[in-house]
UniProtKB/TrEMBL annotation:
The keyword Transmembrane helix applies. The keyword Transmembrane applies. InterPro entries: CHAT_dom (IPR024983), TPR-like_helical_dom_sf (IPR011990), TPR_rpt (IPR019734). The chain crosses the membrane at residues 826-844. It comes from the Bacteria. It comes from Algibacter miyuki. This is CHAT domain-containing protein. Residues 40-97 form a coiled coil. TPR repeats lie at residues 109-142.
Amino acid sequence: MNKIYFLLFFIYGFGFSQTLEETIYITTETFIANPNQGALQHLKKRENNFKAEVKTQDEQLALVFLQTHKAYFLFEAGQLKEAILTYEDALKRYQDNELSEISDFDIIENALNPLGTLYTKTGDFTNALNTINRYVYLAKKNKNTPHQISGSINLAKLYYTLGRHKTVIKTVDNGLNIKNLPEDKKAHLLQIKSESLIALNQIPEVSILGETNLSSNLNEARNTYLIHLKNKDYNKALVPFSSYKKEQLKNKITQRNKAQIHLEEAQLYYFLKQPNAVYTHLNAALKVLLPQLKSNSLPDKNILYAENKFIDIFDLYAEIETNPDVALQSLDLSFYVSKLLQTNWTSQETKILNETNNRIRSEKCIDILFDRFSETQNKSLLVRALQYAENSKASVLKDMFLKKRQLQQFPNDSLLQKEFKLLKQQEQLTSQLVQRDLSTEAISDLSTKLSVTSMALKQMKSLISEIHPEENDVFSIDVLKSQLRKDQAILSEYFYGKNSIYQFIISSETIQLHRLPLHTDVKSDISNFITLFNEPSNINNDIQNYTNQAFNLYETLNFKALSNHKNVIIIPDGFLNFVPFEALLNNPTKTAAFAKMPFVIKSQTITYNSSITLYLNPSKNHKNQDVLGFFPVFENTNQTLSYSITEAQAIKKEMPSKLFMNAEATKANFIKNAPNYGTIHLSTHASSGDFIKPSNLSFYDDTLFLNELYSLDLNSNLVVLSACETGIGKLYKGEGAMSIARGFQYAGAQNVLFSLWQINDLSTSQIMTDFYQNYNQEQSVFTANWQSKINYLENQEISNLKKSPYYWSAFVYYGQLSEPQPDNHYIYVVISLLIAVFILFLCLKRKTHEQKPSRVPSK
């Protein structure tokens, strides 16, 4: 067969004189006539030569034709990552050379449609949505019904993959309204809807859909199988699954789909508790994806590639494996493939959405290592478990931090500069896309620009990796212990899992791991305690209830294990992100006087952080440490912040500052000035957002949304957010709340002081005034934060009800521990006195010299 290929290639490629355009087309047609891996390698070599030679639009179009057919072959062969890169290159070539002006080449059918599908299959959900929205708009604009239909199908599949089943149903219903909808496409849409209805447990509606008589034997068998699976009737599910499998194999399906069938069968046998059958089908799936694999053991990671089916296989393999070392090995392979897939992701939204599965995997690893440690008491197992926990902590923040640190190390590297600029550009476009009331045309335009930016970022990342190998965020336990010794602190990192809360306690000497129960009562205790801070009356109307809950949670979260240390660093997780640990009680109490209660803050100074990596690697301080302040005040409105003026006066008195008051506190002034200051103070209104609108911050004239904040480039040493709910937002386990505070961290602020709930204007002003007085004296944020709260509790002019932790514990500090600076006042006094004494001594000496008689020369 290869000889035939070479002969055809020779005849058509070199047998007679032809233009470059003709040569490219003939080369492509030759490949299409006999596509195989050998032919693919020859095609790649010719493609590289063509790239260097093409100049005219016609030649560029011929190369696009070649690339789209090459990408299609790669897609069918399961080489998804390479297929994506090829489609992207073809699409960019088509756009850059404005080839739509010279040809009616169907770029939707040949590139955009398959690219949207590939993005969905590889978990690149942001690019998938942008790409599909883009060609749906083009299809509607050109009144191309087939492409509108394929767009509806692909959108529904995307939302199904994301688990957004209500949106699937809405998307399908919109697609069913397209005129002249072919019966096979209608059946396809109805099948997607059926599977979402099953996922939502709306089984009767599936039967109604089946009455349309559009269901094939394949779909009927699949639906019956899925319904039994949903109802946990696993034995009943076997029969329809066998029928579904038989119908599938009748069709011409890809190797990837064959592997999927084996995987689903393995999952069914897992539920039936038949491990041998599970092993059989998992190994069959692996050998479909890795034909070179001969044994039934786990493969070497070096032969794996970016394919999410591997992740499902290795995860299930770990579930049935009785040998803990092999189970961990299998989970590590899942992590490895997940990382291969991540190299194609550029948006933080995609990374965060995919983090859920890594979290589940991390918990399994920690479970195994905890059990092993219980048997062996080998402390190295605890360090390994901590690394798994840390891997799922603030991965997006850490990634941005490492990029920024790399740019600081190589400030003149043009590639790093361009990458950082593209990242910020991506966030700017995303911030525009999340705004409401955009026209379809505007959405399409922004989606196109985002796709182009994403492609540029991938190319940039590939070039950078050749010069600067990617930094490993694995930390050294010895470095961590050394830093804790320096800070005289103890660190408690929580991992909020599905079945347990794991608590890692690390001091300068040792490491501990505790598995805390997470049953329904514990979840209720955490949730109820957080709810107490929704309104001041929740605490003040039943103080004894508060004291009971505060001490109960102190014990539940094992905070007593940290009681011997003054400085405590907490890395929270899950719902613990919203717990004010300083307001817990370290002893039971009957008193109703808040000032007398044994709050944790009275004996310990609490600092928070998002991860160990961020704790160990502070950024460089900004040269300008003056305070930049924004105080919209909102006078003569129902949202007036009158005490905000007091805050401004305190800052002006204590610190060198530039303050924007009232009408000057605009969004534009903030964006313009924020990058130039090391300390930023915002006294305003904020919102945690909702399901539609993201977290946001109010200025005098406009609102700053979270994604806009992501696009800023800050290097602030400290950001103080004197506003409501700046630490609240949609919660993602591991990554934390999508809050304004996190937005500042992403933008480059290394230390942030922010609020966890809606706060009182007057008490905030009092605490902030005290904070800046202490900060000015000691230059230590974590000490000033602690002292301001202690002073508030001890202030006899404040009533008991106003000393409720609702009023003083809202502010939490995420950042570094810095030692209080010695008070230089006395040093200056002593130096001044010494100078004065020295001057006085010189004056007296001079006066004595003038009064002494001159010596008369002897005769």
